[in-house]
Design a protein that fits this description.
two-stranded antiparallel ribbon; 446 residues; 15 helices; 80% helix; Growth Hormone, Chain: A; mainly alpha
Length: 446
């Protein structure tokens, strides 16, 4: 029976969440979206802000969504191959280090993103996003290796909790400079305080990532056909995994459900800050307070939902989370412009299910996986599913925003994705029950 790795190894694994979640908070959720909206807009709330990029005029918020969509396309295309090679060559830590370094350097390079350097900002945004999500392919694949099946919900939740604590700590440090720009020789009209926050985020990510890179176990190399290149063996590994997935009905149906509900979850998380800033016209200070509130509530939320899964099962707990997300979307559609307190309430509700649904989704997949040494290849399917759904979600959100001129319609449209995901989770639960009954019947008959 598999044993959970020593506490030192588990804590080191969780510390990578501490390191990279700073990017997710500062760059994805708070300071960078507000900064991007400010320097690409005209400062007039009554006008629609458009920017010129690569010979075409875009709504500034739509361009931001499209840029992230491009990043996720790249990750979706390269991660299956890289993860398969990592499984066959035993160098997943090298790939983790590569994507982490690329992402943290691009994040730091946003220090040079000033008004008039839109192309640089978009390029660094895309590269940092690729680095962050690319590294998660290999980070997630360590979970079934360091945690026994009965401990995976707890260990997964621990990773997210570390991430929320670490990201909030760095966010507070960045706030000091944002609200006290004179510490950097700037003033309220300068941008140095924001750009210095991007630099700090990159350094934080790179620095704390060194601990897991040293302490995580080095994967044992598989025996591969020496006559074939790593490229061919990588594709063969993917084909083998796909053939196994097709035979596991519960896992296949769970991934389909995950595709739809996670499409909406990730789109909301990536677009929420710009929605609040440009559509609801929430002041930057209030927006930052709301985002920090989300992070703080997400910590107990991840553990409570993990506890709930132990009581009613993973699939049922995920169904509860998705139902709450549907309610949150409907509320988000009706939050009035300048409705700061209504937005605070919505942020609290989102925070409670945000960490839980991500943590539980990851650990549920790890539980449903068959016993295998090709953990990275299996998790590449999970991650590619996630990236493709994000691409569809982000491009849909951006397109509907440009088509209607309002992000509210895009938010309401996400309810459809959640409802489809909820129905598919119900289908997954029924399939799981039927298979359990068949197994029990076989044992009794035997």
């Amino acid at each position: 029976m598999q044993q959970t790795a020593p506490k030192k190894v588990v804590n080191a694994w969780a510390l990578y969440d501490w390191a990279n979640s700073a990017y997710n908070l500062v760059i994805t959720s708070t300071i960078f979206p507000a900064y991007f909206e400010a320097i690409t807009g005209d400062g007039n709330e009554a006008t629609v802000d458009r920017v010129s990029f690569m010979g075409r005029s875009f709504l500034n918020t739509a361009l931001y969504n499209y840029a992230l969509g491009v990043a996720f396309i790249v990750v979706a295309l390269v991660s299956p191959l890289l993860s398969s090679i990592a499984d066959t060559r035993g160098n997943k830590k090298n790939f983790l280090a590569f994507f982490m370094t690329m992402g943290s350097l691009a994040c730091s390079a946003l220090f040079f993103f000033t008004p008039g350097r839109l192309a640089l900002g978009i390029a660094c945004l895309i590269i940092a996003c690729i680095g962050y999500w690319g590294s998660l392919v290999f980070y997630n694949s360590f979970l079934p290796e360091i945690a026994a099946p009965q401990d995976r919900d707890r260990v997964s939740a621990k990773g997210f909790a570390y991430g929320y604590v670490g990201s909030v700590l760095l966010q507070i440090i960045c706030f000091v400079f944002v609200f006290k720009p004179e510490l950097l020789g700037g003033d309220e009209a300068s941008t140095i305080q924001f750009r210095f926050s991007f630099l700090l985020t990159g350094l934080w990510w790179f620095g704390f990532a060194q601990v897991p890179l040293r302490r995580l176990p080095r994967y044992q190399m598989h025996l591969v056909d020496p006559k074939r290149s790593a490229l061919i063996n990588g594709y063969l590994e993917l084909r083998t995994v796909w053939q196994q997935l097709k035979r596991i009905k519960v896992l296949k149906r769970y991934l389909t459900a995950f595709f739809f509900y996670n499409m909406a979850v990730q789109t909301i998380m990536l677009s929420a800050a710009l929605y609040a800033k440009s559509e609801l016209q929430i002041p930057t200070t209030n927006l930052i307070i709301a985002i920090v509130l989300i992070q703080l509530i997400a910590i107990p939320g991840a553990y409570i939902i993990s506890w709930l899964s132990g009581k009613i099962g993973n699939i049922k707990a995920l169904m509860v989370c998705v139902f709450v997300w549907i309610i949150n979307c409907i509320i988000g559609y009706y939050v009035p412009t300048h409705g700061v307190y209504e937005f605070y309430a919505l942020a609290a509700a989102i925070g409670f299910v945000m960490g839980g649904v991500q943590s539980l989704s990851r650990s549920t997949y790890a539980k449903l996986m068959p016993e295998t040494k090709d953990t990275t290849s299996f998790f590449s399917f999970y991650d590619v599913t996630e990236k493709i759904c994000i691409v569809i979600g982000m491009f849909s959100f951006g397109y509907l925003t440009e088509l209607t001129g309002s992000q509210r319609t895009s938010v309401l449209a996400l309810v459809v994705f959640f409802i489809v995901g909820l129905l598919l989770l119900l289908h997954t639960l029924r399939t799981q029950k039927r298979e359990s009954e068949v197994q029990l019947s076989s044992v009794v008959h035997y």
